Amino acid sequence: MKGRVFLAVALLGAVTILNSGLAHAQYAGHNTKGDFGLQSGSQAPPGVYVVAPMYYRYDGDSVKNRNGDTVRLDPEERGSLDVNAYVLGLVWVSDFKILGAYYSFQIFPAFTDNTLEIPILDLDESVDTGFTDLYFQPVNLGWHRDRADFIAGLGVFAPTGKYEPGGSDNLGLGMWSFELFAGTTVYLDAAKSWHFATTAFFETHTEKEDTDIKVGNILTLEGGLGKSFMEGAVNVGAAYYAQWKLSDDDLGLGIELPGGRGLGKHRVYGLGPELTIPIATKKKLYGFINARYLWEFGARSTLEGNALVLTATFPIPSVPLQ
Predict the structure, then answer these.
(1) Phi first, then psi: what are they for 214, rounded to 5°?
(2) What are phi and psi of 22, to 5 degrees?
(3) pLDDT of 81
(4) 243 backbone dihedrals φ, ψ, rounded to 5°
(5) Are 118 and 26 in contact (CB under 8 A)?
(6) What pLDDT does residue 78 have?
(7) Taking 70 as the threshold, does the pLDDT of residue 21 lie above it?
(8) What is the pTM of this model?
């Protein structure tokens, strides 16, 4: 499967370290960096697909201030910066077309054992595994051309995970998020073996439950450069992401933060290898296993670490090969 696998869980909180040494906490959005890689701009062929499961692990080993300098953070004193999340998914790609594109509906319930709600510098407790915010795409459109694919649509994060303002055992973010996305996969040769992809996600939010806090808008780019083998059954290459917070968090205080607008809005980049292999016999294709590992760099006002993504995807029914 080449479709998008979203993770409806807040993994990170961005932290801005002020010149005075105090910390102003930025708030996290829902988009999970690194859950989308090679051929990100391609929709799967018509059919039903089950994602069972996707495993996501993030290890944040340093905190960067707004200048990109490392801020000392002792895990024994400040709590774990490691997050594990588990996602199930159901993807339906129909034969029905809208504006020449195939229509798809996708839904991804997810579980996590830790949500790093801000400010992370005071986090010192683990959270038991539980149901987090639900992600679904009511609209996913896919176009296929001779040398390129295109996707566009809308994703919605519903606040189904446990949330209490200031709570230490939250499993969700307590807000609705809406994500417009569009992307393309460009094939660099006639055989469609070499490909480059990028997809952009623009994320906006409602106010957090029982607060006047509204998280700033976030832009994320994800994709990769790769090569396919065995008629597309095997895919290998380099995946990447880049994320920027575009607007300041609104804390509902009616005052400006020290330093004025634009102070320490976070950014971070990630790059690493990706591999997809089939689960098949000579007669039948049962599914695909995808593995992706990304190292972060260039972080400002956020954590910097690495991410591991493992995904098993199965077409229903299995695909005959003969």
Answers:
(1) -130, 120
(2) -80, 160
(3) 63
(4) -135, 140
(5) yes
(6) 45
(7) no
(8) 0.85
Which of 315, 319, 321 lies closest to 2, judged by CA?
Answer: 315
Sign of CA dihedral 315, 222, 157, 109: positive
Q: Which contiguous run of DSSP H or E holds residue 269?
A: strand 267-280
Concatenated DSSP letters of 138-191: EEEEEEE-SSEEEEEEEEEEE--S---TT-SS--S-SS-EEEEEEEEEEESSTT
Per-residue pLDDT of 56-98, as tens digits, reads: 998 887 788 888 888 765 544 444 467 788 999 999 999 999 9
Q: The tokens of 54 are what?
A: 């996707």
304-321: average pLDDT: 92
Q: Phi/psi at 76 (nearest 5 deg)?
A: -70, -25
pLDDT digits (tens, 9 = 90+) for 251-275: 876 554 444 444 568 899 999 999 9
Residue 302 falls within a domain, yes or no?
Answer: yes
Structure tokens at 295: 């190292």
Q: How many domains does the chain have?
A: 1
Centre a 10 Å sphere on the Cβ of residue 202 and count the other Cβ atoms it contains.
15
For residue 3, being part of any structural domain is answered with: no
DSSP assignment string, 214-267: BPPPEEEEEEEEEEEETTTTEEEEEEEEEEEE-S--B-SSSSPPTT-TTTT--E
Residues 6+ apart with CB under 8 A from 299: 62, 64, 68, 266, 267, 268, 269
Which of the four pLDDT bands, split at 50, 70 and 90, describes residue 99?
A: very high
Q: What is the CATH number of the domain that holds 91?
A: 2.40.160.40
Determine the average pLDDT of the residues in 117-141: 70
Smallest CA-to-CA distance from 35 within 52, 54, 60 is with 54
Q: Identify whether 297 is part of a domain.
A: yes
